[in-house]
Amino acid sequence: MAWREKIPLTPPYETKWMLKRLAMDPLNTVDAANGYVAVPLTMLNNAEVIHVWFSHDEAMPEVVVEGENLTFAQVYPQLARIFGWEQPLQKVYKHFQKTDLAPLAARYQGTPLVLDFDLYACLMKTIIHQQLNLSFAMTLTERFVQTYGSQKDGTWFYPAPETIASLEPEDLRALQFSRSKASYVIGVSQAVVEQSLDLQALHDKSNEDIMKQLTRYRGVGPWTGRCLLLFGLGRQDLLPANDIGIQRGLHTLLQTEKRPTALEVEAAGEQFAPYRSFASLYLWLSTEE
């Protein structure tokens, strides 16, 4: 039986930039004008699309959630984690007001750090995206999901680890994966299936321990690990100093003569702690307008 719940959110909670960013991924079902996001959740052997509507009322933000088979109590913790309903957004804004990030903090005030809908999907997407331009990375990910995933109510679900673990590299080569990337995706999926890589256990580990564990696997380097920490696990104090978007954003913000190096990004980012992940988000947003 279908259910529907309304949840008040603590301001500031800004949906404009969040929805714009979600809509950049062609696999997401987003209607920004109506504040709507379809969330594909797989829990307790149920694959269900949860319908989420955000209000555009900045003074009194709220969200309406609708589902059917999975209960509200079952899906709420995951939705709150994905959309940052419990993130300290007011504290983030006040902290950044005292830093060089103040102009961006004012522009993007209340924009949450939104996570990928599923941890395994985040890992697969990140491995696929590494060392590719964004356009082809999205095309390749779209082929991967539409070939081996499933669609329900018009919304795409990433394939299960068991599906990808059973493939041969040539299967992914047919989608224009490189041979090495095909073997990385399959190898990591096999580790997930065999539980040598327990993704759910990562929630309780430190960033350092997670990076050590992930980078043991072929195809998972520091960039991939940090992306999983940011967009899979929602760690709030990460600034990927080697990221070109971060460097460009800082270059424009600080009006430096040249684009900063990774070491210079790290030094400049010290003032943003303990919310460097939000600084990363706001810098990326500034380059995407």
UniProtKB/TrEMBL annotation:
CDD domains: ENDO3c. GO terms for molecular function: alkylated DNA binding; DNA-3-methyladenine glycosylase activity; DNA-7-methylguanine glycosylase activity. Its EC number is 3.2.2.21. This is DNA-3-methyladenine glycosylase II. The keyword DNA repair applies. GO terms for biological process: base-excision repair, AP site formation; DNA alkylation repair. It is an enzyme of class 3 (hydrolase). Keywords: DNA damage, DNA repair. Residues 128-288 form the HhH-GPD domain. One of its GO terms (cellular component) is cytoplasm. It catalyses: Hydrolysis of alkylated DNA, releasing 3-methyladenine, 3-methylguanine, 7-methylguanine and 7-methyladenine. SMART domains: ENDO3c (SM00478).
